[in-house]
């Protein structure tokens, strides 16, 4: 399961604050509607460029101009870009995450859900570590994409990675997948986080296969290009406003 890190729960922020202050005793546990228990290793959330997946490295290499890093977490991407002398704003809905970003030296931070933010416009918007998941459900995707589009400068770009989680469903002998027929898109997952015996409320997260993303972009006057595919059903996409 790809790491899922950018939820607005203080539980996430508390864990980051603990780790950053040298008080690392356990990782974050996650429970999902896919009947999976998993963990988010805190050290991984403090990685440097060399330890990032290739998709993230590629996104940072493609970054241009003024940058908005949505769901910035501990500020790994923002710090790397700052060192490259980019003007970057790190945004997260977790208060603890933003505090950690400041402690680590991120110069410009915003504590806000992305849908509440409309203060500035950018040349590059980053939605890394499956940041498109913040849309929550497929039905919200159009509004989410249009809000992002409203934050772009002319010729701006949105760089995002996501995963097609079809591989998590059982296959039949013909190679087809057994997907629950409950009317919901199979990439819609609900999660609960737990840290130090405190549990978050359940929240929705969206994993998008590339074709579904491409169709949503087409419907909202966005160009959607596949930049590269990862090793396990994941991909990096570049979105831009159609001329």
UniProtKB/TrEMBL annotation:
The keyword Methyltransferase applies. Keywords: Methyltransferase, Transferase. CDD domains: AdoMet_MTases (cd02440). One of its GO terms (biological process) is methylation. InterPro entries: SAM-dependent_MTases_sf. GO terms for molecular function: methyltransferase activity. The keyword ATP-binding does not apply. This is Methyltransferase domain-containing protein. It comes from Flagellimonas pacifica. The lineage of its organism: Bacteria, Pseudomonadati, Bacteroidota, Flavobacteriia, Flavobacteriales.
């Amino acid at each position: 399961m790809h790491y899922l890190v950018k939820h607005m729960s203080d539980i996430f922020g508390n864990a980051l604050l603990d780790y950053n202050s040298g008080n690392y005793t356990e990782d974050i546990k996650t429970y999902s509607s896919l009947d999976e228990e998993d963990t988010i290793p805190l050290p991984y959330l403090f990685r440097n460029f060399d330890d990032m997946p290739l998709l993230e490295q590629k996104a940072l290499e493609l970054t241009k101009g003024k940058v908005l890093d949505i769901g910035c977490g501990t500020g790994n991407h923002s710090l790397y870009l700052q060192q490259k002398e980019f003007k970057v704003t790190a945004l997260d809905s977790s208060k603890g995450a933003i505090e950690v970003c400041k402690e680590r030296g991120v110069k410009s931070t915003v504590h806000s859900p992305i849908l509440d933010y409309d203060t500035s416009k950018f040349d590059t918007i980053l939605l890394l570590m499956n940041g498109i998941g913040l849309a929550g459900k497929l039905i919200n995707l159009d509004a989410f994409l249009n809000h992002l589009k409203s934050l772009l400068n002319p010729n701006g770009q949105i760089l995002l990675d996501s995963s097609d989680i079809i591989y998590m469903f059982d296959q039949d002998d013909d190679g087809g997948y057994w997907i629950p027929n409950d009317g919901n898109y199979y990439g819609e997952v609900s999660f609960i986080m737990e840290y130090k015996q405190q549990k978050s409320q359940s929240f929705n997260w969206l994993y998008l296969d590339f074709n579904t993303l491409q169709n949503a972009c087409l419907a909202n006057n966005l160009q959607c290009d596949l930049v590269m595919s990862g090793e396990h059903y994941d991909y990096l996409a570049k979105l831009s406003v159609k001329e």
